[in-house]
Every structure is written in structure tokens, then in C-alpha cells.
Design goal:
Length: about 300
């Protein structure tokens, strides 16, 4: 009879089983999809997170080809190629489209790794996080931002936003054009004061005090272009308040060059009319004076004739 102490083997087997159970428990608790396939793409493991993401039960998927769950077979090949070409044997955060059991597309951010063990065939581990809703929200935010920028830059009036220190944080294309610049980006980070002509600094600072007090403002001023030209504008400002604290302001700049030109034209016409009026009135007064003088002379002549 040969006796052998197998206690270490039993202990090792028990520890291995405990580790296996721990790994399975972790895999079942995570909301992320976890799949394991062989080098041919045949699925051997499919956790509960994967069931929830894809809508399939594990028994429906195990033994099937993983590529059939991709929206595009080419994308499945792309993931596998990227994984095999990776020196580290893993890839992270690839955005991939899968097909849900109900037919809709599911967007996953996947990380994959090659699993190599002695005496076992190569396996591929894939962990995927469902980012479908996040992606949709990001796309909606992106579309809204693009729409806002389109509206912002389509306005026929200059518009800028400044922070509490008077530094420009946003500006539209028309605002850039008013000061002779090509892009709104050339305004960002600069002090708004530098785009006002020196003779307008005083009124601008007075109106800024009103804005800091939470009041709206409206005033005429001159902007100055890159070439030193002065542009008359009507400025309408609205304060940005957080409670009673001033955080900055939004200002709309209306180009009033045409209006000023018309005002000058009107002034010239008024001056011409006044001149004509003065000439006409002076002439009329002189005519009246002449008539009165003639009448006086006639009266004197008449008196002399009576005397003779």
C-alpha cells in the first residue's frame, strides 16, 4: 500500500474553485457585458450584463459566432485585427455597434484582451459598456451646439459675452466683422474695452457700472477697427447675474453707420431749408419795408400837390 498526502492538491483545488466562483460572481454583478470567445470567435462565456445589453440569454449565445452580433461584419474583423496587431495584446475604448435581439443598434465602448494559458487555446475576452444613451445625448448636445452657433453667427448684429472682468468669452461673426477681424476666435480672451474708440471709454465704463448693478443698458458708442476706422454702434447690454452677484454681460452691437449717414443727410437738408427760409423771409421783409417806404413817399407827394 502506497500512501500519499493529497492535502495540498485538495487545498489548491478548493482555492481554484473559490477563485472561479469569485470571478463568476463579479462577472454576474457588473452591468457591463462580458464575453469570452476562442480564436475562431465562438462564444464560450456570456454574463448577465451581456444578457441585459443584447437581450439574449447565455444559452442562446454560447456556441455561436460572435461576429453575427455586430452590426457590421467588417467592424468585427477590425476589432479582431486591432487586437492581434496590438503589441500589448489588448485594446481599449473602441466604439462598436452591435445588434440587439430586438433588432435595434446598441453602441458599446469595448475593451478586449487576448487570454493565453499554457496548454489551452487562445481566448479573447471582451468587456463592453453600453454607451447608447450617452452617445445619443452627446449627439443631441452637439447638434444643439451647432444649431446655436449657426443662429449665433447668422445674426445681423454683433453679439458678445464678457465675464465679470470684461474679458470676451464668446462672440459671433458679425461682431468680428464690425471691428475688422476675420474670425470670432480673434476676439476671445481679449478685453472688450480695446475694441471701443477712446472717446467712448467714459460712456462704456458708466454703462458697465449700471450692468454690474443689475440694470440693463443702452447707449451709442464708437467701435474701432483693426485699421483704426471708427464704427458708430448702438450697444444694448444685459447683465448676467447669479443672485445679486454680477457674473458678466451679453451685449448686442447694432451698426448705425447708415442711420448716421441719413441723419447727416437730413441735417444738411434742414440747414439748406433754414438758409432758404432765412433768404425768403429776409426778402419778404425787405419787400414789405420797400412797400412801406413807397407808401410813405406817395403820401408825402400827395400832401405837396394839395398845398400847390
Amino acid at each position: 500500500i502506497v500512501a500519499r498526502d493529497v492535502t495540498p492538491l485538495v487545498k489548491q483545488a478548493r482555492e481554484s474553485e473559490e477563485k472561479r466562483m469569485l470571478v463568476e460572481a463579479i462577472c454576474d454583478c457588473t452591468p457591463d457585458a462580458i464575453m469570452i470567445s476562442d480564436k475562431k470567435g465562438i462564444i464560450s462565456f456570456f454574463n448577465r450584463g451581456a444578457e441585459e445589453v443584447f437581450g439574449y440569454k447565455a444559452e442562446e449565445v454560447i456556441g455561436t459566432e460572435v461576429s453575427q452580433y455586430f452590426v457590421s461584419v467588417d467592424q468585427a474583423k477590425e476589432v479582431k485585427r486591432a487586437l492581434l496587431d496590438s503589441p500589448e495584446g489588448w485594446v481599449k475604448n473602441m466604439i462598436v455597434k452591435f445588434r440587439h435581439k430586438e433588432g435595434r443598434e446598441v453602441l458599446l465602448s469595448i475593451s478586449a484582451a487576448l487570454l493565453r494559458s499554457e496548454g489551452e487555446d487562445l481566448k479573447i475576452l471582451v468587456i463592453g459598456k453600453d454607451v447608447t444613451d450617452d452617445y445619443k445625448r452627446a449627439e443631441e448636445i452637439k447638434a444643439l451646439k451647432e444649431f446655436n452657433e449657426y443662429v449665433f453667427n447668422s445674426l445681423g448684429e454683433g453679439l458678445n459675452v464678457v465675464d465679470k472682468d470684461g474679458i470676451i468669452t464668446q462672440a459671433n461673426l458679425k461682431m468680428a466683422q464690425l471691428v475688422g477681424l476675420d474670425s470670432p476666435q480673434e476676439l476671445i480672451g481679449r478685453e472688450v474695452r480695446e475694441f471701443f474708440a477712446p472717446e467712448s471709454w467714459k460712456v462704456m465704463e458708466e454703462e458697465l457700472r449700471r450692468l454690474k448693478g443689475g440694470e440693463r443698458s443702452r447707449y451709442e458708442a464708437f467701435l474701432i477697427t483693426r485699421k483704426g476706422e471708427k464704427v458708430p454702434v448702438m450697444v444694448s447690454g444685459t447683465p448676467l447675474m447669479e443672485g445679486e452677484e454680477y457674473k458678466g454681460s451679453i451685449a448686442v452691437f447694432t451698426d448705425i453707420r447708415d442711420l448716421k449717414a441719413k441723419e447727416e443727410e437730413l441735417k444738411a437738408k434742414v440747414a439748406e431749408l433754414e438758409k432758404w427760409y432765412r433768404l425768403t423771409v429776409d426778402r419778404e421783409l425787405k419787400m414789405i419795408e420797400l412797400k412801406n417806404r413807397i407808401r410813405e413817399l406817395e403820401e408825402k407827394l400827395g400832401m405837396r400837390e394839395e398845398e400847390t
